[in-house]
Amino acid sequence: RDSLLDSIQRLVTQPYTAHFFDKRFKSKCEAPIFYNGEELRPDRIVFKKDEILVIDFKTGYAAPGSKQMEDYRKQVKKYCQIIYEINHKPTTGYLLFLEQEQPIEVCRIP
């Protein structure tokens, strides 16, 4: 449990992930999005002035190019495409593994 809390604290304070948690921006966590009869729940959506960020948190490890990693990427891309369709603002999606420090940029729309 302590290592999970340590990982979260590190992510909140690291320069390349702190903006995901900046209180100046409105954010939603696991808010349901209903689209074409499907319910989606992105882990975190951050609404900046000119951009929307979609962050999907993961634990463990997925090797680059693995089926698991590709499934994660596909999921984030889907979230971004739908959020872009709804909001018409540039949308960037990230995978963020708790054990790693660098987020993985998955997509930018448009």
Q: Can you put this structure into words, describing what you see?
A:
With 110 residues, the chain is of the alpha+beta class. It is built from two helices and seven strands. The strands form two sheets. Strands 1-4-5-6-7 form a five-stranded mixed β-sheet, with helices on one face.
Helix content: 25-40%
Any low-confidence stretches, pLDDT <50, length ≥5? Answer: none
- Classification by helices and strands: alpha+beta
Shape: globular
Series of H and E elements = HEEEEEHEE
Helical segment count: 2
Main sheet characteristics? 5 strands, mixed
Strand order of the largest sheet: 1-4-5-6-7
Return the average pLDDT rounded to an integer: 92
- For the termini, the CA-CA separation is 39 Å
Gyration radius (Cα, Å) is 14 Å
Number of strands: 7
Beta-sheet strand percentage? 25-35%
Q: What would you call the quaternary organization?
A: single chain
Which structural traits does this protein have?
110 residues; alpha+beta; two-stranded antiparallel ribbon; 7 strands; 31% strand; globular
